[in-house]
């Protein structure tokens, strides 16, 4: 009887954890997806395929982690893909056309991303604009600059010395994925161990209440936009190193996928709820789905449709969980 009661308690605790955290639930779903994919396709667990999955996951994951920070304060940035692309193109042109030291160019590329993010933050906070509308506009600005300076052509001839950042691995693990994990650890440290992290959640719950408490809301929002610009530039530069060229198509689907990854991982669209680690789990779900589509020879155009379906299901799961939780609390109060 004792063992049975212990097993029952463990099972109840497990179910409660799934109900309480979207991130935990999605982690379990991800594991189930990986098991099914490895059984159905003999190629899924191939080392080359796994490295490809991790490499693709790194880019979506990095952007998703950055986007999750903005979602935590109740905002978003739809220009992340164009910031990544423009930073990569400017860096590539400095390397190839100007002939600057490649490593100096990479550092400047990160600065470009930081500046673009800062511009977004200042425009939104100073002019009191809606973040979605403002970043849609800035997406057009950055995309237009991309086309003007490149005339739609790729910047080729990226130095071989830097390409290992996007192409090589440390043991079996691709370097971009290692960098993605480092970014996640830095972000987790900020949100969990610093005052700024506590302020981020406070702002997401209520900007007005945060201002009353003396939190410099606009300063923190600008800081987050700048940091997201930096992360976007980092992802863009790594992708340039992976391709060996800077192309205007880099980051086209990153805005949607980054928001999708965050929502799937349990980060609330209304702010104040979630964990940036969930964005990486959400990115993994999207990446595994896309990989399965490729392995089974399904038309690649279905990737966007499937990603959209997954987002809707994730949002629905979150809403249903909230409704169930509210109804349960009402019953407890009535009793």
TrEMBL record:
It comes from the Bacteria. Signal peptide: none annotated. The keyword Membrane applies. The keyword Transmembrane applies. The chain crosses the membrane at residues 25-45, 57-76, 106-124, 131-149, 169-191, 222-242, 280-298, 304-324. CDD domains: TM_PBP1_transp_AraH_like. It is a multi-pass membrane protein. Keywords: Cell membrane, Membrane, Transmembrane, Transmembrane helix. It is found in: Cell membrane. This is Ribose transport system permease protein.
